[in-house]
Amino acid sequence: MDDIQVLVPNDDNDADDEDEETTSNPDFINTALIQGNEEIITEVENPSLLSSLRSRLNKKLTVNAGSLNVLSTKYESLDYDTCENYLLLDEERKKGYKFIVRKITAKWTIFLFIGMITALIACLIDISIDTLCQLKYGFLSDYVDNYVIRGQLYVPYLYWIGFNIIPVFIGSVLVAYWEPVAAGSGIPQVKCYLNGVKIPRVVRIKTLIAKAVGVVCSVVGGLAGGKEGPMIHVGAAVAAGISQGKSTTFKSDLHIFRYFREDQEKRDFVSGGAAAGVSAAFGAPVGGVLFSLEEGASFWNQSLTWRIFFASVVSTFTLNFVLSMYYGEFGNLLFPGLFNLGHFEEFSYSLYELPVFALFGAFGGLLGALWNSINYKLAVFRIRYLQKPWLKVMEACLVATMTATAGFLMIYLLNDCKPLGQDPTKFPTQVYCGDGQYNVLASIWFQTPEASVRSLFHDPPNTHNVASLFYFVIVYFFLSCWTFGLSTSNGLFIPSLLTGAAWGRLLSVGLFYIYPNKALIHPGKYALIGAAAQLGGLVRMTISLTVIIMETTDNISFGLPLIVTLMAAKWTGDYFNDGIYDIHIQLSGVPFLSWDPPPLSHNIYASEVMSHPIASLKNVENVGYIAQLLKDTSYNGFPVVDPPILNNDEVTIYGKLRGLILRSQLIVLLQNKIFNETSDSWSNINANIFRDEYPRYPTVDKLDLSEMEKTYSVDLRPYMNPSPYTVLHSASLPRMFRLFRALGLRHLPIVNDRNEVIGMVTRKDLARYRVWRHRGQMGVEELLVSKEI
Amino acid sequence: MHYSLLLLIMLNAIRRSSQTDGNNTSVNCTEYKNNFAAYISNFTECAIVHARPITFCESCVDKYINVLQSYHNLSTFSDEAGICINDYINLDRLQIIDTLYHNSFDLWNRAKCYECFVMINDTITNMPSEETTKFNILLNDTSNCMQATYQDENIMCFTCMDVYLALNEYYISISNINEKIGMCMDIVDLMNNTRSQWSRRCCEYRKRKEYVFLISTGFATFLTLLFYILAKFCTDMRTPEIFQQSRFAESLNQNNAT
């Protein structure tokens, strides 16, 4: 709280201070330009300070699309700061403690429902995927065996393509045309939301539907993707949906839970929903809670954690209950999560294996870095050349075709046979094997990826042919890399676990050749380590990933090997590039604030970071002026200031800060016509008039103001936040950064020592300073900002 | 070891004190126990002898029934001290009788031998079940045919195809392969042998030339490459414009410049 500037009038010559700041200022801009040079097309010919500044001001700079170091202006910040205006005080006075008790009860109820509904949706997704996949693969397996004798393998091949393309087409049309934000795994989007960035439409019901249907389509379509990532997004959307008691899409308002219609409350629910999603996906309630902790919530307190844990446990329990009912074992509770790695029986490790695990981790980190780099190049290509929705749909269909092609070619070329009946295979397909045998690759391809992971973990040693594992690793590595980033909703957990499990098993065969008499070399164990290493190398998550894997394998004693592996994977991968989610976040230009401010940045002052000519409003402001200001600027927060005492064009005059008002509040005021001149017709103004419009306020163009009304005035004082957080112009970047990160601020007015507003700092101003790390070196770069990303 | 011995002695002492006479086991029970031992050893011997090729179920069914019967006797008959089996189980951690009995029981069940025989009131008999009989008839046909024409592959594959397919189909119908192997191990093993003999000599007919398939995979790959190349050359790349942020320093410079 020491960051709040105490209002002490100070009549020192502050003009001198400002001059000093500007002399230190340009150096930084200059270096920033040089750093950003490789992306800037327009060349800065004269490196001298003034000309570089002029070229920045006069010429239009452009960058190639798909750049990592450009922020988009499209993303706004969520506002976690409570607006302590008169309406709030009024409400608190009227409602009293009874209201608080009711609110707490409501919160718990909502968390209960978040857990239950998330789990029910998960069940629905799981059951439909299961049913459709059984139909599809049963049919294909029969057809392959029927047509292989006739020498017409192209018939089942075409059927396979058809069965892949139709669902993928539906899923990608849904995503590309109807709701683009439902693309991918959804984890980057949820991560951004929890970080405090408002990703448009990310938690809407439309997204929820697109996501749920889309994930069924893409998994049934055989794409190399899983349903686990999307489950997290689904959980988040469910939480945001039911906590608000209204739906803008369906234009219905139940008039309940109005007090939860603000960013802060909603964010808490969303973190609970994300945790419930993880918990339903992996049967890992603790992992879910830790995921929410690791990936987002900047506020973290004991009671919220407890509620989130409650939602997670409810979610996994509900899923378990419903699925065991569906599979005819009522009350048996055998299905804790959608993805269950199965219970490992003999799992022991000895001290000398730890270095081996670390080596596995490092290898996973290398592969992960390679995967990320290829996927980054692909993503850039997609951003640059595949922007039109029909191109996206076509690409998804082509990838579905190629998945079938790769699978069928492997079945055809690698005649890896195994006798029937050693282990339960859903659809044993004979192809070119003898009677009583089945083709191993066909059995891997003719099942969902989850089941394949499980069989790689649990099949007894020597069941898999080394050659077929090797080809499988290579093909699946590239397929999963190609698939992630398509405009379909699927995640990358399962494909990377599958790739990792396959190479882990492969390496264990190698280890077995070197040390043939070591009883500890159990292929399932190394498959698990490989899977963890591969996934860790891709996403670079630490705590939650360890706990999730521990929970899905029911093996707590295996924590240390997993930690060693994941650490090695993360460090190796970080040497080359960022985690895949971070790469995608940077590509979309989201102003994401990391955990810590950039190091060595205490010499960057607020006066350099802030946006300078600010648009401010007077305590009592003219309606026409407000409307025009809202139209002309894109700002979202406006300082309310005392009018300057003397108005002299020669010197810039700043007004003394009285409060902060948001664009949304102004719009609601104008929309409800709360003007001083019409005070007779005001009806019962309370905080709910703002909540009814939340979260999507009308734009200023939608407002209907007559010419007469534009001459009216509105008193902003009862609605503005009278005591916003402010800092002095000499505050350092880390200080402001911590205010934003810890308090979830959206606007931070910068004042001089007379408490006059001289600038404003928002999330984008801080997110511009980003740390980069590459090959053991690091530094801070200043990002550019664009409206068109 | 010592502790269990101690425990045994203590338990015996306790029981002795509660019994009227000093004899802890009657002659009757010892006899049952010895019978059981003999049957178990017979059964085990039989199982090992018929391990490979597996004719375990067929050869050892009588001995298994004996084991069951003797264990049943042991656990139902009683002398004045109580049921016989109570003298042998739950007294020490070794549990010899129980362990060996369950070994045999598990071996039998894991082989699913009960599928081979008729069950009457949940008790096993040594009569082969309907499926077994039918399977054996079909198998005989096939193996006779295969033996008769063993010299020439072409003749064998041609003449025996029908009987073999009938056998194969019948086997598939009884063994419900989608879930778990549902047949008794004797049949599974016989069938595996027959199949591998057949496949080794007659499976060549499965391989055909798949030109159309290979060409269509090539076409799909070509189409995909074409898509990316066309996308690259036919789409204009977007070049987003950089947004000029207004900064304090710039406004000062602008003021100075004007």
UniProtKB/TrEMBL annotation, chain A:
InterPro entries linked: CBS_dom, CBS_dom_sf, Cl-channel/antiporter, Cl-channel_core, ClC
Protein's UniProt name: Chloride channel protein
Localization per record: Membrane
Pfam families the record matches: CBS, Voltage_CLC
Superkingdom, taxonomy of origin: Eukaryota
SMART domains documented for this protein: CBS (SM00116)
Protein keywords: CBS domain, Chloride, Ion transport, Membrane, Repeat, Transmembrane, Transmembrane helix, Transport
Membrane protein topology class: Multi-pass membrane protein
Originating species: Nicrophorus vespilloides
Region (Disordered): 1-24
PROSITE patterns named among the record's database cross-references: CBS
Residue span, CBS domain: 720-778
PANTHER family in alphabetical order: CHLORIDE CHANNEL PROTEIN CLC FAMILY MEMBER (PTHR11689), H(+)_CL(-) EXCHANGE TRANSPORTER 7 (PTHR11689:SF136)
Annotated CDD domains: CBS_pair_voltage-gated_CLC_euk_bac, ClC_6_like
Keyword check for Cell membrane: no
Transmembrane helix as UniProt keyword: yes
Biased composition (Acidic residues): 11-22
Transmembrane segments: 108-129, 157-178, 208-226, 269-292, 304-327, 347-372, 393-414, 466-485, 492-515
Family membership: Belongs to the chloride channel (TC 2.A.49) family.
From TrEMBL, chain B:
Entry protein name: Osteopetrosis-associated transmembrane protein 1 isoform X1
The keyword Membrane is assigned to this record: yes
Coiled coil: none
Annotated keywords: Membrane, Signal, Transmembrane, Transmembrane helix
Pfam families listed in its UniProt record: OSTMP1
InterPro entries: Osteopetrosis-assoc_TM_1
Organism for this UniProt entry: Nicrophorus vespilloides (Boreal carrion beetle)
PANTHER family linked to this entry: OSTEOPETROSIS ASSOCIATED TRANSMEMBRANE PROTEIN 1, OSTEOPETROSIS-ASSOCIATED TRANSMEMBRANE PROTEIN 1
Signal peptide: 1-20
TM regions (residue ranges): 211-231
The encoding gene: LOC108568229
